[in-house]
Amino acid sequence: MKSSEIRSKHLHLQQPGNLKHSDSNAKEMSALLRQPCFERIAGFASSAFLSWAPKLHQHYAENLDSLLAEDPGLKRNFSNSMWAAATLNFGPKVFTKKHRDYANLPFGWCSVTALGDFDPTKGGHLVLWDLKLVIEFPAGSTILIPSAAISHSNTPIRAGERRSSFTQYSAGGLFRWVEHGHQKDSFFFQGKTAADMQRIAEENAARCKLGLSLFSTFEEVEAAARAANHR
Known about the structure:
Residues 1-24 are annotated as: Disordered. The protein is of the alpha+beta class. The chain has eight helices and nine strands. Strand 1 (2-8) and strand 2 (16-18) form a beta hairpin. It is globular and about 65 Å long. Residues 7-13 have low confidence and may be disordered.
């Protein structure tokens, strides 16, 4: 597994930074990210995100743009994608156990693209445990899921088959960093009055409602598509 991302360097969010690799891995990752195939996959996933959740997509895009504007040393993985991080799982038989990606934005979406050569009717299924769904997930398919909120996994593939994956996501801490004025929590909370702390607590309590407000209804998606077709 190889990852390229903008992330918080420490658990307590010292400062966002580029993920560190050894010299050899950094060279390999840089070459992979420049491959047209991964650029196309990254752009397709981001465009799908924009189509199905335009308000949430904008939230991601504005956050990443703010990070990059504040710190020119941060590197964007793909010019056509607004996720901060990407992971390539090489396999050759990639599957995941039941989990949630708790470090990602709680109401955010990540993209998962299946790659390889396997029979999707026999293995490699995507399992969404909370929804009680088992979905055939062929190579070349991309799905968008709220990976921090929904438990998910993959089923193993058969002997002699190959499966890899390419994922994109953004850590929740990056959004908090921007929201707190591009500074550590310890600095952000300095000098805050009791009224300030009460307001912040109320905003945090309403964060779930904020996240849901960034989701789009089918009617909104259809209206946006019709408007785009008439431009």
